[in-house]
Specification:
The structure is a homodimer of 371-residue chains. By secondary structure, the first copy, chain A, is an alpha/beta fold. Chain A has eleven helices and twelve strands. In chain A, 35% of the residues lie in helices and 23% in strands. In chain A, the strands form two sheets. In chain A, strands 1-2-4-3-5-12-6-11 form an eight-stranded mixed beta sheet. Chain A has a four-stranded antiparallel beta sheet with strand order 8-9-7-10, covered by helices on one side. In chain A, β1 and β2 form a beta hairpin. At the A-B interface, α7, β8 and β9 of A face α7, β8 and β9 of B.
Chain lengths: 371, 371
């Protein structure tokens, strides 16, 4: 992906620099090239079993904006840069959105390089192994504005047959790693009343998490029991340790706090019923914020001027733009994905439903770059 | 373990042969050495997170019987052999009780060598790597009688302060590998009603399995959700595939059949509630049989003659003697394990509560070897 993208950038004649965390920066100079650039950014990496458009569409749309301006011989006042952020998905190295997190000051570059995959390989070493590490600082530089175009990853735009979502902010999200502790024992002779099976505790917690999502579903709340690691996880022995990663989201941060409280109460009950210990071992979260109001207005006005049907909406997934928004004005454009299917190899888009969003991206970027 | 045992055998002056699956056979000749031997067998391997007595006690008790006869200068009519069966636990290579399974004709030696561990390493290659493969055939040879002494792995003997359990047969056991199928999707934007999470389906199945054990617990039934593998099992994506290994046991084979039926009905309900597909991908079982009546009588009579308190009981775990019983008269002796704690590093025994069982083993083996 990275090599192909670099090849396309070179063919288009743009300069490419790679920063120390592997993020790829393409630059089209401005007439006043010392001014902070307008940035178009998303990611080329994908999920295990993910599709071909999540992230990729936004990076390629950015490249196409630069090419179109080049084809038209059109100069902007400010430079425009397109960035492919490294490791947005977090499929191998957690956390997701790692490079944009570092860019925004949320994690030191050294700490990012020290993240390890399940096999114990360091993120920095993995970058070196594929020759993906550049020399430019991965920390924030002055940015005039940042735009991210992305497939919606939900069914709303596709269902309504509206080509553009103007993203005004993000759902509030809570992540938790639960640690469930039981006691190893033989699966055969151990009487039921002597058992404390971490898998059973984790199963109760996973169902409680799922139920939480259904309870808040009428308000667009949702929840996921996403990942479960058990030890020793063998057929002949009861497991004594489990880690369960859970994720829940709500458009309203206050209601997310209610979900937090509901979950904690439910976990106490799960632990009691399954005679295991259940603790919250790690907490994280993102979202629950608004994108830059000026950029939202710019997108609304531009869509209206171009007669592009658009709706305002919140993003439910995390995106690199969430982190960038902490250090620069940022906004997102959503385009439809068919049936809302994403993080799935069947993920797909319709070209005609996608072009209006890219047109809007170009016009808004140009307007901002000429500011 | 193997090297230490071989050293002790050599120090005691007994011959040691290793068969092609790595089982170690120690032989003390008889006066009529052409007669089929009396065999004392158990295993030296242990579980991940297992203890120091499960299996090991039975092998060392066998060696001690040979040493005691040697010390006393006592000759038996038949030869006596002690066997350390390879891979009883199945902690790395499934199925458990692999070498005794092959011995009894339940699996071809080639098929056993082709079993692979989770890293894809062949069992035969793993044997070669530690120099554990011998040349003798691993298939059954004529055996006069087989005795296995083992810790009970349950709390009954310890609670009753009775030193010996004479094992008349085995609980009936059913094993199932369930395959749960969902659909990958993003953990964020995917509406609850569009989700089909294999982890949630597996969690519902695991709780149903646990509930099954509680329902039959008053009749000594029990059940275990033992192992769960999920794919892709990552924080940002809903898993679409899960394998759940379950195990349930009952003293009465007819009631085990009722448990089979209850489980199938419960799984249909779990699949419906979690909107996943749940299939039984693999079935296996063991137990539900009686040990050799003559050997049971011999143990009862001998215990009575020696004034050793003993109770008759069923084994709830699987043991190598289960397989050997298909090709030769076999029986087991249980000794207490403290608190019934087993498959746990805290597994422990009391020496004074163990010696009567070993005494019984020796006397019964000698009686049979002189038959």
């Amino acid at each position: 992906m990275r090599a192909l993208f670099a090849e396309w950038v070179a063919q288009s004649g743009f300069g490419l620099t790679v920063d120390a965390l592997g993020s790829m920066w393409v630059r089209r100079p401005g007439l006043e090239d010392h001014l902070p650039p307008v940035v178009i950014g998303s990611h080329l990496d994908t999920q295990a079993r993910g599709g071909r458009f999540d992230g990729i569409l936004g990076v390629l749309a950015g490249l196409e904006v630069l090419r179109s301006l080049e084809d038209a011989g059109y100069k902007t006042r400010r430079p425009i840069e397109v960035v492919n952020w490294t490791n947005e998905e977090g499929a191998r190295f957690s956390p997701p959105m790692l490079a944009s997190l570092v860019f925004s000051g949320g994690m030191a570059p050294d700490a990012a390089e020290d993240r390890r995959d399940p096999a114990g390989i360091r993120f920095g070493d993995a970058l070196d192994a594929i020759g993906a590490r550049g020399t430019v600082s991965p920390l924030a530089k002055p940015v005039d504005a940042c735009f991210e175009l992305h497939i919606e990853q939900g069914p709303a735009l596709d269902a309504a047959k509206v080509p553009v979502g103007i993203v005004t902010g993000g759902f509030a999200m809570s992540g938790r790693r639960l640690r469930i502790t039981g006691r190893t024992a033989h699966v055969g002779p151990t009487p039921m009343m002597h058992r404390s099976n971490a898998l059973v505790g984790a199963a109760a917690a996973a169902l409680a998490v799922d139920e939480l999502g259904w309870r808040y579903a009428p308000e667009q709340g949702k929840s996921t029991a996403a990942r479960l690691d058990l030890r020793p996880n063998l057929p002949g022995i009861i497991s004594d340790e489990a880690d369960l990663w859970v994720d829940y989201r709500h458009p309203d941060p206050a209601r997310l706090a209610d979900m937090d409280a509901d979950l904690e109460a439910a976990l106490t009950d799960c632990a009691r019923r399954t005679r295991t210990r259940i603790e919250i071992a790690e907490r994280w979260g993102f979202g629950g914020f608004s994108f830059d109001a000026d950029l939202v207005s710019l997108l609304k006005d531009t869509a209206q001027a171009l007669s592009i049907p658009a709706v305002e909406m919140l993003s439910q997934a995390g995106h690199d733009a969430y982190h960038v928004a902490k250090v620069a004005p940022a906004v997102m454009i959503f385009t439809p994905c068919i049936g809302g299917i994403t993080h799935n190899e069947a993920e797909n888009i319709d070209r005609d439903m996608t072009l209006p969003g890219i047109r809007l991206l170009m016009e808004a970027v140009v307007a901002r770059a000429n500011r």
